[in-house]
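Q: For a teaching session next week I want to show students how multiple molecules come together into a single three-dimensional assembly. I've collected the sequence lines for a complex. Could you give me the predicted structure tokens for the whole thing so I can convert them for display?
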Amino acid sequence: MTRLLLTALALTLAAPAHADTLVDNVNGITLDKDGKLLRFTGLVIDKDGKVKELLDRKDKRPERPDFKEDGKGRTLIPGLIDAHGHVMGLGFQLMLLDLSETNSLAEAQAAIRKYAADNPEMPWIIGSGWNQERWGLGRFPTAADLDAAVPNRPVWLERVDGHAGWANTAAMTAAKVTAASKSPDGGRIEIVGGKPSGVFVDAAMSLVDSAKPKPLARDLDRALYLAQQKLLEQGVTTIADMGTSILDWQAFRRAGDKKQLAVRILSYGGDIDNMAMIAGSEPTPWLYDDRLRMVGVKLYLDGALGSRGAWLKAPYSDAPGQTGLPLLTPAQLRNKMVRASMDKFQVTIHAIGDAANAEALDAIADLTADLPGERRWRIEHAQVIDPADIARFASLKVIASMQPVHQTSDRLMAEARLGPDRLKGAYAWRSLQAAGARIAFGSDVPVESANPFAGLAAAISRTDAAGQPFGGWRPEEAVSRETALDGFTRTAAYGGFAEDRIGTLMPGMRADFLIVETDPMLASPDEIRRMIPLETWIGGYRYYKKEASGGGR
Amino acid sequence: MTRLLLTALALTLAAPAHADTLVDNVNGITLDKDGKLLRFTGLVIDKDGKVKELLDRKDKRPERPDFKEDGKGRTLIPGLIDAHGHVMGLGFQLMLLDLSETNSLAEAQAAIRKYAADNPEMPWIIGSGWNQERWGLGRFPTAADLDAAVPNRPVWLERVDGHAGWANTAAMTAAKVTAASKSPDGGRIEIVGGKPSGVFVDAAMSLVDSAKPKPLARDLDRALYLAQQKLLEQGVTTIADMGTSILDWQAFRRAGDKKQLAVRILSYGGDIDNMAMIAGSEPTPWLYDDRLRMVGVKLYLDGALGSRGAWLKAPYSDAPGQTGLPLLTPAQLRNKMVRASMDKFQVTIHAIGDAANAEALDAIADLTADLPGERRWRIEHAQVIDPADIARFASLKVIASMQPVHQTSDRLMAEARLGPDRLKGAYAWRSLQAAGARIAFGSDVPVESANPFAGLAAAISRTDAAGQPFGGWRPEEAVSRETALDGFTRTAAYGGFAEDRIGTLMPGMRADFLIVETDPMLASPDEIRRMIPLETWIGGYRYYKKEASGGGR
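A: Of course. Below is the structure for the complete assembly, covering every listed component.
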């Protein structure tokens, strides 16, 4: 049982801020501004919701704080920052059909059938989370597999990585897809027996996407509400939203305007059009007491490994003719980077394959000298890197924005797709760090769960939820506990130009923190993975409290 | 010489609000909440920028106000509210080529030639304001007329009423318009000698509009800045923006976020799509200390008289075959009205011709009983009304949102278009009032100047800037000074659900007011028309002050 305080948000924020709050008797942990671990037993919060003072056991407490909270000796850690997620994607995952826990095609078909029966009014059945690898299917699913579950209404389901979609015959009919349809640039219609199989990869997804009914504003608002609830529950106090659309942004603003935005969102516009439409000719100011800012733009340079859209230097080991797809020409990529940078937007590039990472680095090398200001280039995922390119992350000062849980979910697939030789540069956290690069950690929610504790555990152990493989997959790439925490706090903030206000609990920073049961600097990876926040505080207010009697989510 | 204080806005708004301000020794005028004229000599403003108290000569003054302003016996009136304008249209008019002061085709051609020479970097020459009636041309201008001025770059110029566009050959080429092009529904490509003449009416304008380069965000921001400057200078403290696009809205928000929004904007989304994308499933809250709110949606039911797009019951007197165009079917209009109303948005319908007004009233009559809440239906312009329909404005509680200066600009054209018999219901302010309808007054800027004093003068005199015709055009439709002021203050606020915060200077209302040289309750129409605000105050801050030595604009 959990108790969610989000509904009380408007009230809380509207109430006059109390003056000093003392959170005392805690096992407090934070990194300082240089990344050194620091411990404390009390935290004083000022009337603006910022940290006023960290107290040692021997330090004098304020005499009459307006509000006092007894931590009862529990551990207090900084609010965790997800450096790469999709806020509305999470929200819609919570609203729509979620297949991410299905373990076979038959299980998925049963879930689809049940959801359709439960939601007779929905014009389309829309969902996500399927993964033919997890099912052990050995092939993509087909429209016929879906027709068997729901023949009479369009069904359209995104793959777990968001890089492929699966349609039934009714959806393809609604989208006017026929055997004569052509794959668009940067996409692929899967063909079986001379006609579309029902699976659409990358840019080809838009063929069906464009036919599905658009969500209404109230759907977006509901999705944002659900996403915030989930993030608060999981201890995420800030999330970088990677690829914000104008519709997403309007939902963020509606929530902010109504004082219903609790979780901080660092927004990156979905390509240049959304960036410019939303923020204009420069990043927005921080809005709603540092709860929302559009800081930059997200560009897509390739797809994902699962759908073989990731752009590799050499062909896939399990599909010899294919190397994946670059989604931008060199000129397109550089033009977009210059356009955004000239207006002081931060640029982050989705690059999964080693060819995409090399090209992103090349582009950054080409442009860095001629662009003004501090750029803080980012590469999202940086999953498969040619070892020869690793040092370039440091020399070009590129932030590697990586998602530890991807490694544990992908490892078997990565082995198949890449073969043994290319694994050296795959999910190479420690190598990047050793080379001097900064790493921000995230979840890629809804591709994975937003749960950052799973990420912390994977980062230090290279093991999955079942603790597999024993000793970790390529364990030499695991990072220290300090580095893992840094990636989910201090460097995640730095990666979004936010280190002057969040990411640590040093005086002057926003008082975003969690109360947890176990000290993550001492607990086993398995204990860390099972950690559930008892309380989530943002800006000096408690937004979430787990009920004492509860059994977690 | 004028001094504009808008640049100091960020500073002003960021400064801690002072406590009480006393504006004393004024000839103060306001309507009270019931519309009765009230006089005062002192005004006390509280720390939130609201009116705290109105003082009579004999009333005791606050002992130690934080700020004291001596009105030196000058007149203080409520800030004027423009119930119908186009904020970004005004801004772009100020940035782009403005032909509204040209008196002949030759003058216009010279202005176009000069503007093109002055702006060699502009890919297209874009502008507005032409009026072949004012030129006495007796026909629409043609592409050849434009080619004579600028042959080598696309030129695209909107007519003064925004209901027609004039392209040169280069613009038509860029837009791929040929003799084979078809007029779209609700629009007309003017044909001369079997091919497009260069003039595109109503929906046909989009053929060329869609080919012109889109303005950048920085252009929008600049336009908004210029529009605000102009409005402050003219004494407009609030404007209803009729047909806000998502791009307009984003510019408003950027200004608000940077504390650079001075003038209050009551926004009506341009049709349902913009409304829903911007505000979601209900009107926005008041934002930025009551400076911005999306309250409703603007629907277009017909075009304008000048371009013969206004939808008439009987054919135009000067074009016997034509009755103008309805832009929505009965079902479309009602569907949009229901969709917006169910989400509590206010609905306002552009209706100029008598057929359009009758249809708008029919639709309102059809729907009122079944929709929840207080709807405050509005009809924009309500220019030509079948006398049989006038009483329906009152019985259906429809606000007539009218623009007095249109009457003076249009009268000769209206006589030609309508013939003598139909003039009885044209610009029929007094008849509407006598029937019991409420009238909000505005400018329709940039179709006319935003200057509300010209509107006040026209409202009470039915004469134009030259005082013509002597005694007024159909003077029986002139309104009293109180009604004119009411239309530009109290009822303009009521028309946007804003009467609880602006429109009068009663205690509790925002302290939006002007200092002027002459008492508009005593001055002649001609004196009123020439009035220029000496100071413009919004929310208790002075944003504009005319320099004492100045000669006005």
